[in-house]
Amino acid sequence: MSNLRNKVQLIGNVGNDPEMTVLETGKKVIRFSLATNQNYKDAEGRKVKSTDWHNIVAWGKTAEIINRYAVKGKQIAIEGRLASRSYETKEGEKRYITEVIVNEVLLLGAKSEDQAA
User: Fold this and answer.
1) Which of 4, 53, 74, 90 is deepest in the core (most CB within 10 A)?
2) Cα–Cα distance list, 87 to 1, 19, 98 (Å)
3) What is the pLDDT of residues 76-97, one digit of tens each?
4) Where are the domains of the chain?
């Protein structure tokens, strides 16, 4: 069971076009948001759709794959781990963020023209 610690699996839609950064060391990192939906019935029996937004980060070859094939609206599945960090804004305010660090990505849905080649 030790491999179940800090494991996240999500299927959702890319919320914004991923942004690739190449660090001074040559390492590639990509960041984007992922929307996941949940459907349920409220107390009156009406169907409700709830959307959660996740901050996604991928490195190296995985980042390159996402950069090439994942665009806003594309459905993907990811597996990774949660990571929390804090940073300070220009105004001196401390902010906290939780991100999913991707280990694996699976492109879902129909192939785009770019993937057909």
Assistant:
1) 74
2) 33, 19, 12
3) 999 999 999 999 999 999 999 9
4) 2-38+47-111
Q: Give the pTM.
A: 0.83
Distance of alpha carbon 82 from alpha carbon 17, whole angstroms: 21
Give the C-alpha separation, 110 to 9, whole Å. Answer: 21
Enter the tokens of residue 14: 């890319």
Residues 9, 77 contacting (CB under 8 angstroms): yes
61: left (phi over 0), alpha (psi -120 to 50) or beta: alpha
In the chain, which ranges are continuous DSSP H helix?
A: 60-69, 113-116
Round to whole Å and give the CA distance between 105 and 57.
Answer: 11
* Distance (Å, whole) CA 49 – CA 16: 20
